[in-house]
Design goal:
about 40% helix, 15 helices, alpha/beta, eight-stranded mixed sheet
Length: about 450
């Protein structure tokens, strides 16, 4: 079962540490089955309860997953596994449309913004005990939220969307609590929740966002939080419609204690209006990252929320990292003020490529989805075969397993690297690899 690797340890902590170390070192691979707890207990000469406690520790840390009689196995993307271990070596000449990265040609140069930040620092350096959030940046962020109809609330900063989400979740939830997440949805959220000891409740998605009946079901079974992508959903491109948002807000009104997190990571590169769920319950947060519009290495996200949530997150942040670099804050403020990104042109560029690929696939009888953002989702019947078949034809796509819990198989294609001349060849490759399958619902 484990090949040449032998688990060691006596107590629960020692056994868990050995397995976690083996996963991190690559000796135990993602998806690999672990021995039944009684079998491992006999091998180690310990009580089965000791192994059960070790497996429970690993599950709470997001290293393994358990499925009742089907046993325990290393998670597909365990919290301790190096990301490089999960990548596929691409043959020379392969076009990579799997990464989810923005088009670097649309990202602004940073030299002027960083120079402006350095000049501000020279005149008024940020020191211990000073404000953690630049007042001008906060005012600009609040004005943008106001323009989109986001409820009033204080402003906070984090080092990217996922950092903000983690801090918001831990401000209200505890290990064992259930959180409703989109399925398919952002793989990092699917990984983060179990790493925090939270139970994932999958919620189906269609082109208009989370399915109302699935959200209702999640609330009925006790989900204490709901994470929703407002537009440009990864991997499907779904976007909350006004009607769907209204329906979900009605459902949430009967569950005022549920925490709601709106992810608006594609702000600045989508033409669709924002329809959010913020304010539908007592505790909420809406998060916007600079990564997609200004560059993934510009590690800054702004968020707003109810006063209690923002105060808890900012207070805990001060005890750890302290603050997000004021150099980054001033650089982002400069980019905003100077209009370094033509948001309309950027949105139009992604829309044209995405819509062109969708049209080309439809012409070839392939069902695909993508209302907004930079990704297209293609439902398939055989995910592994489709990925392999496209790789043989010179295209690397992202397997849907990275984004799914219970939903049906699919492929994610990122349109960022595509030029006009790439659309037809890619659509041809997909059509030749697949037999058309799928429906309007990604489940």
């Amino acid at each position: 079962m484990l090949g040449a690797y032998r688990i060691t340890g006596r107590g629960a902590s020692g056994i868990a540490a050995d397995i976690e170390g083996a996963v991190g070192a690559g000796a135990l691979r993602p998806g690999q089955a672990l021995p039944p707890l009684r079998e491992l207990a006999r091998e180690l000469d310990v009580n089965p309860n000791t192994v059960a406690a070790a497996y429970r520790l690993l599950r709470d840390r997001g290293v393994i997953e358990t499925a009742g009689r089907r046993g325990s196995r290393v998670r597909t993307r365990p919290a301790t596994a190096p990301r490089d271990a999960l990548r596929i070596d691409l043959p020379p000449g392969t076009r990579d449309v799997s990464t989810g990265n923005p088009d670097t040609a649309l990202l602004p140069p940073l030299a002027e913004a960083l120079a402006a930040a350095a000049a501000h620092h020279a005149a008024a350096p940020a020191l211990y005990g000073g404000p953690v959030t630049d007042a001008e940046l906060a005012a600009a962020a609040r004005a943008a939220f106001d323009a989109d109809g986001v409820p009033a609330g204080p402003i906070g900063l984090a080092s990217g969307s996922l950092d903000a989400m983690e801090r918001v979740l831990t401000a209200h939830l505890r290990p064992g609590d259930a959180v409703a997440v989109e399925d398919p949805g952002w793989g990092s959220v699917h990984d983060l929740a179990p790493a925090l000891g939270l139970r994932v409740v999958p919620v189906g998605v269609d082109d208009e966002g989370p399915m109302a009946e699935d959200v209702a079901g999640a609330l009925e079974v006790g989900a204490r939080a709901l994470v929703v992508t407002d537009r440009g959903q990864n991997p499907t491109g779904a976007a909350l419609s006004a009607a769907r948002a209204a329906r979900l807000r009605d459902l949430l009104a009967d569950h005022p204690s549920v925490l709601v997190i709106d992810d608006d990571h594609v702000h600045g590169l989508t033409s669709l209006p924002l329809h959010c769920l913020s304010g539908a319950t007592d505790h909420w947060a809406l998060v916007r990252s600079t990564a997609k519009a200004y560059g993934p290495d510009l590690r800054l996200a702004v968020y707003t929320g109810d006063a209690v949530t923002v105060d808890r997150v900012r207070g805990r942040h001060r005890l750890g990292a302290g603050w997000v670099s004021h150099l980054l804050q001033r650089a982002v403020l400069h980019l905003w003020r100077t209009g370094a990104v033509d948001t309309e042109a950027t949105a139009r560029s992604y829309d044209l490529r995405r819509d062109a690929l969708l049209a080309a696939l439809a012409e070839r009888g392939v069902v695909a989805h993508g209302r907004s953002g930079m990704n297209v989702w293609v439902p398939v019947s055989d995910e592994t075969g489709a990925v392999a078949g496209l790789l043989q034809r010179g295209w690397a796509v992202a397997p849907g397993a990275r984004f799914r819990a219970r939903s049906a198989p699919g492929l994610r294609i990122t349109v960022s690297p595509l030029g006009a001349d790439d659309i037809a060849p890619l659509a041809d490759a997909v059509a030749k690899t697949l037999r058309p399958s799928g429906s309007g619902r990604y489940a």
